[in-house]
Amino acid sequence: MAQVRLTKNELKQQKDALKRFQRYLPTLMLKKQQLQIVIRQVEAKEQEKGAQLEKVRSKLADWIAVFGEDQKLEEIVEVKKIVTGEGNIAGVDIPVFEDIDVAITPYDLFKKPPWVDKAVVQLKELIALDAEIKVLREQVRLLNEELRITSQRVNLFEKVKIPEAKENIRMINIFLGDQQTAAVVRGKIAKRKITRVS
Question: How far is residue 60's CA from residue 56's CA, in Å, rounded to a whole number?
Fold first, then answer.
């Protein structure tokens, strides 16, 4: 704890600082709660998309298993780019999945089995879900980082700054009270001396 000057100006500064800390603390606590809620929502959405991804994977695997052919579908469908936007949650800029740009390499309809068309559509859906899950994981990572920083600030205000300011105010009040009492006593002593002399 830094050395505090025991003056009225310092007392005013400490009281102002305490008011400021007490005013910002509820805002930080609200932000912390909001971040926790949003993180749970994004994690639930990620799990939901993961379940959808597994469902699409099993459908795709069923198609391939039914016909027992090794068709290299990855060569037909290629990801060009993942389109993301920007969102803002509690002051945190996060990526938001919008779309995926996929290129489908033309293939010979006579050489490929008939199920390949449907498998390509499902593979496109699989790639989109996978990309969306990656974006959701990035959202969770960014939100967790902001939650960590906000929690540190809440703890700093709650456990350090506010108690420190209260203790400084108490010390300054005691010192100023003692100074005032000493001034009154000195005044009384001076008054007695003056009355004795006269």
Answer: 6
Indicate which CATH number applies to the domain containing 110.
Answer: 1.10.287.3240
Residues lower than pLDDT 50 in the chain: 68
Q: How far is residue 148's CA from residue 192's CA, in Å, rounded to a whole number?
A: 65
pTM for the full predicted model: 0.77
The number of domains in the chain is 1
C-alpha dist (Å) from residue 65 to 62, 69, 72, 107, 189:
5, 7, 13, 21, 106
| pLDDT value of residue 145 | 96
Structural domain includes residue 140: yes
Helix (H) or strand (E) holding 94, with range, is strand 92-104
Alpha-carbon dihedral angle through residues 161, 166, 168, 171, given to the nearest 10 degrees: -160
Give the pLDDT confidence of 61-119 residue by residue, as tens digits. Answer: 776 665 545 556 666 777 888 888 999 988 889 999 988 888 877 777 777 767 677 77
Indicate whether 183 belongs to any domain: yes
Q: Residue 40's pLDDT is what?
A: 96
2 lies in some domain: no
Residue 55 lies in a domain: yes
For 158, which DSSP code? I
Sign, Cα dihedral of 55, 57, 59, 61: negative
